[in-house]
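User: Second chain of the day. Same drill as before.
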Amino acid sequence: MANISAKDVAELRKKTGCGMMECKKALVEANGDMDEAIKVLRERGIAVAAKKADRIAAEGVVDIAIEGNVGAIIEVNSETDFVAKNDTFKTFVANLLHIIVTNKPADVAALNACVYEGETTVEAKLKELIFQIGENMSIRRFDVVEGDLVSYIHGKGQIGVLVKFEAEDAAAANEAYAEVKKNIALHIAAQNAVPYICKEDVPASVIAEEKEVLVAQLKNDPANAKKPQQVLDKIVEGRLSKFYEANCLLNQEYVKAENKETVEKYLANMAKDLGGAIKVCSFLRYEKGEGLQKREENFAEEIEKMVNGK
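Assistant: Same format as last time:
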């Protein structure tokens, strides 16, 4: 058996970030061969990743990168918020964004198959990190957008917003245009996510269904029994306005407005000031962990596991 020195163990630990005992075991198994030991750790990482795959990963980070006119937004999850602050984790996410912007993979499966570095794929690197850091992690989702873009990150990765604009030349050339774009992105981050930009984007089937619900509500209210149909129709239209406010970006009250103007009105006013039309073409709003089952801490159980060496 090869003589494994403390220096060898320290060097392997520096290269892989794995624990001292794991590094020593890998060197012993590899008979002192450094490259083989790294391979052993990576292979073992795959096994560890499989064991951790059923553990809840609802923390993590939302991040964005824009390179030229191409932007990417991503959510990568971990089990704890602590890991999301780890520099190794943050570097991994930043590298993923660059890979996405460069390769424009179709989905997460395609991203996993992309080269991360050398001969290592994204999927292999993720499994390596799961072993190295000791938590389950997953690439949940990403999107790629091309055009006139602006991004906004809130709360160190709690919420991310990526917005695509179109503007006439005079407005685009104005220095204040950048601030207008940032303001819209900030507004989107501050509000609950909405599915549409404007009421014209709402499908007719959705409006018809909403009207059916509103009509049913009116009919079930005895106070409306004697009201003429014309009045009831006006009530429905009024309530539809509330539906648009709740579901369409441009119909929302602009968060920084002092006079309750809508986002649409704010953009119209700024377009007038900047000398050209400004249009929101699309937007994406990611909130970390939305829709995912959250991890429920049971500290008594965790302590018992530590005591029993589980």
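The first strand starts at residue 59 and ends at 67.

User: Great, on to the next one.
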